[in-house]
Design a protein that fits this description.
Order of helices and strands: HHEHEHEEEHEHEHHEEHHE
Radius of gyration: 19 Å
Largest sheet: 10 strands, mixed
Structural class: alpha/beta
CATH architecture: 3-Layer(aba) Sandwich
CATH class: Alpha Beta
Shape: globular
CATH topology: Rossmann fold
Number of domains: 1
Length: 290
């Protein structure tokens, strides 16, 4: 699954953090049992940004599994978390299969798990009433895989938090005549196989909410849009490159028009009025019976 580079993940981490729906994390924290250790499973964890966002906000004693198919990204998770812990004044130590942290308001033991989630999901164990979470994941997976995850969450009475799921909206202001065509092509590309079968792409937020509701979950959704201005030049340039490459892989794409669009948009990055919006949603769900 992981075709993401550490550079891309590092560029998006601060934007993700400021964009996420903090109200859902507050609601999740309120649902935690006081003085009881939290068990959490982070699916498609990459370099650990979701853990770093949630751990201090949820607080208390925590046991995490960070699961990804790319051992290089998981190795980077340890190095990045060490530096992050130092910035917080938290103690960091390596363990046999991961690392441990002790901060002012939280204590975490983290196990790094290299696993192909598309093929080997059934082999991943998580305890009863765990938190099952992921960030920027659901638009990459297939509906059949999502249904398997939802059923396992139901059977284990897990609480679910999925953040930053792409919803198909991508807009740049001021508008350009080529934007609509690029958006259409990118959203078509989002539906292609990312390793899990035909990807949900922009349909992921609605499909996830419906699937979890059918499994007996109470579901709450909040927007977590990226809004990118002149302080986000690196990420904006990476987005333009990624959108152009994705669009160009599709049958019927006009490569000449795409190159002209990319050139116009790249030149406009230095204009102070240029703003990007990339639509995302966060979702929190818990068994309705609880």
């Amino acid at each position: 699954m992981s075709s993401f580079t550490p550079k891309w993940l590092a560029a998006r981490e601060p934007v993700d953090a400021r964009s996420r729906a903090a109200s859902l994390v507050d609601s999740l924290r309120e649902r935690l049992v006081p003085h009881e250790a939290l068990a959490a499973v982070d699916l498609g964890a990459g370099t650990g940004a979701n853990f770093r966002y949630l751990a201090p906000r949820l607080g208390g004693l925590q046991h995490w599994q960070l699961v990804d198919d790319d051992p290089r990204l998981l190795a980077a998770a340890g190095n990045l978390t060490r530096a992050w812990a130092e910035s917080l004044g938290a103690a960091y130590s390596e363990t046999e299969n991961g690392f441990a942290l002790a901060g002012k308001s939280f204590e975490s033991r983290v196990r790094l798990v290299t696993m192909n989630l598309a093929a080997d999901l059934a082999e991943l164990a998580w305890p009863e009433s765990a938190l099952v979470t992921g960030s920027a994941l659901l638009d990459l997976v297939s509906e059949s895989w999502l249904r398997r995850v939802a059923a396992r969450c139901r059977d284990s009475t897990a609480t679910v938090l999925f953040a930053l799921t792409y919803d198909g909206r991508m807009h740049i202001q001021p508008a350009d005549a080529g934007d609509a065509q690029v958006r259409m092509l990118v959203n078509r590309h989002q539906r292609t196989d990312k390793g899990f079968g035909p990807a949900l792409g922009p349909t992921a937020p609605d499909t996830a909410a419906k699937t979890l509701a059918e499994c007996g979950y109470q579901v709450v959704r909040e927007p977590s849009d990226w809004r990118l201005g002149s302080d986000d030049q690196e990420l904006r340039a990476m987005l333009l490159d990624g959108w152009s490459r994705a669009a160009a892989t599709l049958e019927g794409a006009d490569h000449g028009a795409l190159e002209l669009w990319h050139n116009r948009r790249s030149r406009a990055l230095d204009n102070p009025g240029t703003e990007f919006l990339v639509g995302h949603e966060d979702l929190l769900a818990w068994p309705a019976a609880l």
